[in-house]
Every structure is written in C-alpha cells, then in structure tokens.
Design goal:
The protein is α/β, with parallel strands linked by helices. The chain contains 13 helices and 9 strands. Strands 3-2-1-4-5-6 form a 6-stranded parallel β-sheet. The longest helix has 29 residues. It binds NADP nicotinamide-adenine-dinucleotide phosphate (NAP). NADP nicotinamide-adenine-dinucleotide phosphate binds next to helix 4, strand 7 and helix 6. NADP nicotinamide-adenine-dinucleotide phosphate (NAP) binds next to helix 4, strand 7 and helix 6.
Length: about 290
C-alpha cells in the first residue's frame, strides 16, 4: 500500500480518489474549494490539506485531475504548488486533459527536481470514474509508468503506456477526435428519426446491435431523447479539448475537417447557454435549427 496525494476533487477526481482510499492506500486530498475535500474525508476517511505543497508531503505518488493547462501549471508551480513539496524518486501522475506542450514543460521541471512526471489522461466519463472502469492512456518513462500502474488499477479497466512524455495526451486527442464526428452523426440520426415520425428508442434498440453501435449510442440515446443534458462531459471541456487537437494538428500537419466543423457546432451550443451541458447536446442544436 502506498502513501498518495490526490489534487482536484471534481466530477472525475472525487470518485477516483475515493477508489484509492477504498483500495487501502493512505490518501491525502487537496481541493481548491475546501468544502469538497471536507465532504470527501467524511465519506472515505483519509486526510485533507489546504495547499498542494502540504498535500504531497511524504507521498510516493501524487495524482492530479484539474481543468486545463493553466490550472495544471498553477497546481504544480504556483505558490504552495505540488512541485515545491515533492522530493526525488516520487512520481507525479497527471490525469487532466491538457496539451502535450504543457506536459513537456512540466516533465522538464519535474525532472530537474528528480521527480518523475507521467501524463495519464482518462476516458470513460463520470460513470467510468465512479465505477472504477476508466481507460487511462499514459506517456513517460517506462520505469515510472511501471511503478504507478498497480496503483492506477484501483480505477482503471485498461491502463497502458503509449510512449514517451506527451504520448498519453496525444492519445487522448485521438480519442476526442474520434468522438466529435461520432456524436454529431448520432445526433443527426436521432433528429432524422424524429423528423420521420419514428420512435427513436425503437430505432436505436435495433441499430445499436449492428454496425452503427457505439458507446455514445448505448450510453446517451435515452437521455438525448428525453432532452436531458445536465450531466456527463461538459461542452466547455470538449471545446477546450478540440482546441488542443486543432492547435496540435496545425503543428503536425494533420487534416481534421470534421473536428473543426463540430468544434463550431459546440460553439453554437455554448451560445445557447449549454456550456455545462453534456456533449450529446448537439441534438438540441439541430432541433433548434428546425
Ligand atoms: P470539474 O468537475 O470542473 O473539476 C475540476 C477540478 O479542478 C475541481 O476540483 C476544481 O476545483 C479543480 N481546479 C480547477 N482549476 C483549478 C486551479 N486553478 N487550481 C486548483 N484547482 C483547480 O472537472 P472534471 O469533469 O472533473 O474534469 C477534470 C479534467 O478531466 C478536465 O481536464 C476534463 O477535460 C477531464 N475529463 C473529464 C471527463 C468528464 O466526463 N467529466 C472525462 C474525461 C476527462 P474547485 O472544486 O475549487 O472548482
């Protein structure tokens, strides 16, 4: 059993840290808004600290799951940041979805302090975090990954090292690129069924068993047809992720025409007031068009 710290108890981090404590590890949590850390300690046990520096004291492995590049920089390098409290031979595992650029930057700073940095973004959503069934895609030195892998199994269904630092974040970009067009396609199919006067449930119960089936179709069609979007993976986060994908494509020369188009559709959803709606709200945009 390891001494661990977990920084960021949001939709994802809260249940992930809970799985670590339930697995028998000694977990100290930090959350910017202290009430969430207090609630976490009363639910799972463990301890809380009021700064990242204090939370990581004595930890073998530190996990973080915060918002974007700037948030991660702040949690690592800011006043009372995690790196100030980490010593050699410890490992920082970043579950935030961020750019490969900030990953390389923080990897280098950590390395200069003798600390290992593993990028480890996740897929599987809120349900995957709560059920301990996330897909984790990692980048970083093999030895650091090997040392962290067993601990990460507390909340992963699959966890794999893809390559050197940044490879986990590039893999997460592939994940988001694959999802973007798919959710638009699913939204168009449900919109089309409604316009044709068919029951969307009947349609999906058949086509989900064939070549059109997908995680998005199986897990989202009911809430989409019920017009429920106040859950899941926020449109604001998806725009952050697609922005990272499109900026990276500008650098590596990849052509992402559908991703660019769907990013604009999500901009429309934000204008409709749906920044915190689930990404399946692309259906709501089509319905608003008539
Ligand atoms: P969330 O519910 O909004 O939680 C964000 C967490 O980060 C909160 O604990 C927040 O603290 C903390 N935070 C943000 N900025 C901070 C800062 N500058 N300093 C310190 N703490 C800060 O987000 P989430 O849904 O858990 O997502 C977290 C990350 O996982 C994002 O990168 C997201 O893209 C990724 N992700 C999310 C999902 C999903 O389905 N939700 C799936 C895969 C990946 P406060 O409580 O004080 O606000």
């Amino acid at each position: 059993m390891a001494k661990l710290a977990f920084l960021g108890l949001g939709v994802m981090g809260y249940p992930m840290a809970g799985h670590l404590q339930k697995a028998g590890h000694d977990v100290t949590v930090y959350n910017r808004t202290a009430e969430k850390a207090e609630r976490w300690v009363s639910e799972f046990g463990g301890t809380m600290a009021d700064t990242p520096t204090k939370a990581v004291a004595g930890a073998d492995i530190v996990m973080a799951c915060v918002g974007n590049d700037d948030d991660l920089r702040q949690v690592c390098l800011g006043d009372d940041g995690a790196f100030a409290g980490m010593v050699g031979d410890t490992i920082f595992v970043d579950h935030t979805t961020v750019s490969a650029a900030v990953t390389h930057e923080l990897f280098a700073v950590a390395q200069s302090n003798g600390v290992a940095f593993v990028d480890a973004p996740v897929s599987g959503g809120q349900a995957g975090a709560e059920n301990g069934a996330l897909s984790i895609m990692c980048g970083g030195p093999q030895a650091s990954y090997d040392a962290a892998e067993k601990v990460l199994s507390a909340y992963s269904r699959v966890c794999r090292r893809i390559g050197d630092s940044g490879a986990g974040q590039i893999t997460k970009m592939c994940n988001q690129i694959a999802i973007a067009g798919l959710v638009q396609g699913l939204s168009e199919a449900l919109h089309f069924a409604q316009k044709a006067g068919l029951d969307g449930r009947d349609v999906v119960e058949v086509i989900s068993q064939g070549a059109a089936g997908s995680w998005q179709m199986s897990n989202r069609y009911k809430t989409m047809l019920d017009d429920h979007f106040d859950h899941g993976f926020a449109v604001d986060w998806m725009r952050k992720d697609l922005g990272i994908c499109l900026a990276t494509a500008n650098e590596n020369g990849a052509s992402l025409p559908v991703t660019a188009l769907v990013d604009q559709f999500y901009k429309d959803v934000q204008k409709m007031g749906g920044g915190r709606w689930d990404t399946s709200s692309l259906l709501k945009r089509l319905q608003a068009l008539g």
